[in-house]
Amino acid sequence: MSSRGASPVSYRYKPAVVEQLWLHGVHPTPHTRPELVHEFVNDLYRFELRRLRDRLMRKEIPKVGYYDRVIELRRKYPLVSLKPAQWLEP
Asked: What pTM, to 2 d.p., does this model score?
């Protein structure tokens, strides 16, 4: 079965979600699957977590306050706690 002539699926992201995504340099189009964007943002979050942990292991940052830094980083990525479908307008 050919997909020629079929109109592409269009997604309407919630404005608050788009605003958060832009903070991370992510600019989805109406044709970008939310699952793909979610995976990308989750990868960014995990990358930053690993970088923070590596800094702790190299003793670049003190152990005291590390937990607070992790919480601060988590607050920077509120979208990872939502399912991709929750990013869209009903």
From this structure: 0.84
